């Protein structure tokens, strides 16, 4: 038998599910209501087969590195239906059941990776019994990234192939684990979904008195009314385990954006509060609870949270523009922090495919599984579009439109971070699930997932023909939309949490002009035409259509678009009409004229390096009474507030589902005799109140008990020597980090000095550009000395050899 035939036979062997035999033991020393079976997990990869596969260059559950059929990727113009048919082409090395879906997955993924620059993707097709197949494609980083890395600390992981054991963060797919934890407590009689959270978590409080009506269910179905997400310390370069406690404190300063249960708006903080509820009820920290009650019983031995740094090479890293590898520590554990693999997620998928029982272990009741899949929006009072799809408990959509169009049930959860993009689909009635994750969100995992699953359904015999794409040409649609509009009803200023649009009439009654607010002025965005269905569309993007919807006292810009791979339409409210109000108080004008700098974000913050430290304000003449805000550290852009109070500007949007997520009130506070602006957790000081650094001066300051950073401006280019600081960020006159990304993490748990952020415990010299800014960090109560010199060459005679080395590292770009 040739080596190729051996490889094909072994791949066929691993394409078939391998049923695990679990050994159940009793877990001692736990309350009886919390006892769960402890399972001694067998090696699902079976070592002998792994050894044989390794000998011929394969892993036990997937090919790694460059695949031989990359040339079979479809052309740019290929439709999804054609792609499903193309996936049935015979390919070398693929044989047996579901070979077509496997081949299609590889083709689509390689094409998407090439088009988007995604370095790696890992995926698995799953049945009720376990893995059908799994594949990992790509490397831990591009070869050019490895070459660009700092020569003093070469990164040898770039170019190394990923395997099906490589860890990825699955982002918001982690919410399903929080939901399972909550429903386990329901199964055990410890929690009731419709009991107020306050009963389980007495420390929970908000400024809006209605917070007392928020139930556990509302945390899981996005109906709580919380502002959205506390981004402070959420994504960092070192683990931060106190994040969920911080969120409770942040909520205590906030008010609700809508009444509990009035509507559902995607909300991360609700799931973070589940962490606190689990710990309050069980006495066990959330991460430990998930480990003992979900991961261990399911034999998910390659899944974990970033409570400590992972070994280099074990995970798919983020990459800086200079090529440095770093671990994105995602501290929002319940909402988005689980690192895992698609092969481990196969075990989790079986939980939903087998009514909560996996390999004889009852993890969750069948009733709980079905309750997660119930559409939660049916009782909401504010719903501008029909209730045809939407949130379940934990799930993004329990009536996934592409599969509903074929009469099939499908549940979906998407996950995305600044580094990773994932999608998880379960088809409970057809015994199939699909997990895909990779090192970007741009490769569109949902598009791949839908096509792969439809191909698998064809192979399974559940479909006899590929589904057809929905009509994408508006002129071909003759039935009137319920959101049909005219050039008289369409015009208004519309806004959502991230953008402001102006729709205006033209001389042609069948068209409208659309402008978008950019910076300090309107910019022409598009010219929309009216279609036969009464919806307006951009001729360059006819698959997206706009109309008008109403709910309560609000007018909305509705959006109809073809979802996923294009098999179904999706309708939602896209933006809310904004009406002019009374002029804002004069005191706000002085604040609008200022730039504001965050002072309480931790030095490990990814946002400080990627997005910058500033907050700016603006107004739009056509809508007096409103204040616009841009907040770089929380990636907030062009969010409108109503400003009719001298010391507060209030959030205004009520747009269901996603387009009014992550709102905040903007509040004025006074600290150290100066005005500060509070945006959620983040506190900002006016740039004009930040002291300037002059040449040949020394400043000695003590870090306050609050741990806020020290901020200094540099009117001219200057060198500074820092003594007693632990970190510093340097920005140029546009508030961009001087050194793009700072993360050279040594995986023994320490972070050394690197680009953009210097970590130091001895005198260190940094160069500040003209009109630059430096944020200096130290431990609370400790003294920091800042010595400034100019010109830079004057310092070279006084530096010690060690200090000169540090200066060279800190100024390398």
UniProtKB/TrEMBL annotation:
Highest taxon above the source species: Bacteria
Bias (Basic residues) ranges: 804-813
SUPFAM superfamilies: beta-lactamase/transpeptidase-like (SSF56601)
Residues annotated as domain Beta-lactamase-related: 108-445
Compositional bias per record (Polar residues), positions renumbered to this chain: 786-803
Region (Disordered), start-end ranges: 786-813
Name this protein carries in UniProt: Beta-lactamase-related domain-containing protein
Organism: Orrella marina
């Amino acid at each position: 038998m040739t080596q190729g035939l051996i490889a094909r036979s072994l791949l066929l062997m691993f394409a078939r599910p391998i049923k695990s035999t679990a050994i159940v033991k009793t877990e001692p020393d736990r309350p009886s209501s919390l006892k769960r079976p402890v399972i001694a997990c067998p090696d699902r990869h079976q070592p002998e087969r792994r050894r044989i596969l390794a000998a011929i260059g394969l892993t036990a559950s997937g090919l790694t590195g460059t695949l031989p059929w990359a040339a079979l990727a479809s052309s740019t113009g290929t439709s999804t239906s054609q792609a499903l048919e193309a996936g049935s082409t015979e390919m070398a090395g693929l044989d047996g059941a579901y070979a077509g879906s496997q081949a299609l997955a590889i083709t689509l993924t390689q094409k998407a990776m090439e088009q988007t620059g995604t370095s790696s993707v890992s995926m698995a097709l799953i049945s009720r019994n376990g893995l059908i197949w799994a594949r990992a494609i790509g490397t831990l980083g591009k070869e050019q990234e490895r070459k660009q890395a700092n020569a003093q600390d070469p990164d040898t992981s770039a170019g190394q192939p990923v395997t099906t054991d490589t860890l990825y963060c699955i982002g918001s797919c982690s919410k399903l684990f929080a939901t399972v934890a909550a429903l386990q407590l329901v199964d055990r009689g410890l929690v009731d979904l419709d009991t107020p959270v306050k009963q389980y978590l007495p420390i929970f409080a908000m400024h809006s008195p209605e917070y007392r009506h928020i139930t556990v269910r509302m945390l899981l179905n996005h109906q709580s009314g919380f502002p959205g997400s506390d981004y402070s310390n959420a994504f960092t370069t070192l683990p931060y385990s106190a994040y969920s406690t911080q969120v409770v404190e942040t909520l205590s300063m906030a008010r609700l954006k809508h009444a509990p249960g009035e509507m559902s708006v995607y909300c991360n903080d609700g799931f973070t509060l589940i962490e606190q509820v689990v710990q309050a009820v069980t006495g066990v920290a959330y991460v430990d609870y998930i480990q003992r009650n979900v991961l261990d019983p399911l034999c998910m031995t390659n899944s974990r949270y970033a409570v400590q740094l992972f070994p280099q090479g074990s995970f798919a890293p983020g990459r800086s523009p200079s090529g440095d590898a770093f671990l994105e520590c995602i501290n929002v554990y319940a909402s988005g922090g689980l690192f895992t693999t698609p092969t481990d997620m196969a075990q989790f998928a079986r939980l939903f495919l087998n009514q909560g029982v996996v390999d004889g272990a009852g993890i969750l009741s069948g009733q709980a599984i079905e309750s997660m899949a119930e559409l939660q929006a049916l009782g909401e009072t504010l719903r501008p579009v029909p209730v045809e799809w939407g949130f379940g408990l934990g799930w993004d959509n329990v009536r996934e439109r592409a599969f509903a169009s074929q009469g099939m049930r499908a549940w979906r959860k998407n996950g995305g971070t600044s580094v990773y993009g994932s999608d998880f689909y379960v088809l409970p009635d057809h015994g199939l699930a699909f997990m895909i994750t990779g090192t970007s969100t741009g490769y569109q995992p949902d598009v791949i997932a839908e096509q792969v699953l439809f191909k698998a359904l064809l192979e399974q015999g559940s479909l006899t023909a590929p589904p057809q794409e929905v009509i994408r040409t508006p002129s071909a649609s003759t039935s009137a939309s319920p959101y049909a509009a005219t050039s008289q009803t369409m015009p208004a200023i519309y806004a959502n949490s991230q953008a402001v649009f102006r729709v205006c009439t033209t001389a042609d009654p069948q068209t409208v002009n659309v402008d978008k607010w950019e910076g300090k002025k309107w910019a022409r965005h598009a010219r929309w035409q009216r279609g036969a269905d009464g919806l307006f569309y951009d001729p360059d993007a006819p698959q997206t259509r706009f109309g008008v919807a109403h709910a309560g006292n609000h007018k909305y810009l509705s959006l109809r678009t073809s979802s996923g791979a294009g098999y179904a339409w999706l309708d939602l409210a896209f933006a809310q009409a904004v009406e002019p109000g009374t002029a804002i108080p004069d005191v706000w004008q002085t604040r609008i004229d200022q730039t504001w700098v965050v002072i309480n974000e931790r030095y490990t913050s990814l946002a400080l390096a990627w997005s910058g430290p500033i907050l700016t304000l603006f107004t739009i003449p056509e809508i007096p009474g409103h204040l616009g805000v841009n907040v770089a550290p929380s990636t907030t852009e062009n969010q409108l507030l109503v400003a009719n109070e001298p010391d507060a500007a209030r959030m205004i949007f009520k747009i269901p589902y996603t387009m009014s997520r992550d709102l905040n009130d903007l509040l004025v506070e006074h600290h150290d005799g100066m005005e500060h602006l509070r945006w959620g957790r983040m506190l900002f000081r006016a740039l004009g109140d930040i002291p300037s650094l002059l040449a040949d001066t020394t400043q000695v300051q003590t870090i306050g008990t609050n741990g806020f950073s020290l901020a200094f401006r540099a009117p001219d280019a200057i060198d500074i020597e820092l003594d007693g600081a632990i970190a510093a960020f340097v920005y140029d006159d546009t508030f961009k980090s001087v050194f793009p990304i700072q993360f050279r993490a040594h995986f023994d748990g320490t972070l050394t000095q690197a680009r953009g952020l210097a970590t130091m415990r001895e005198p260190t010299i940094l160069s500040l550009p003209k009109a630059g800014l430096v944020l200096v960090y130290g431990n609370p109560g400790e003294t920091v000395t800042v010595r400034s010199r100019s010109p830079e060459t004057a310092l070279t005679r006084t530096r010690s050899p060690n200090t000169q080395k540090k200066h060279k590292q800190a100024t390398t770009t």
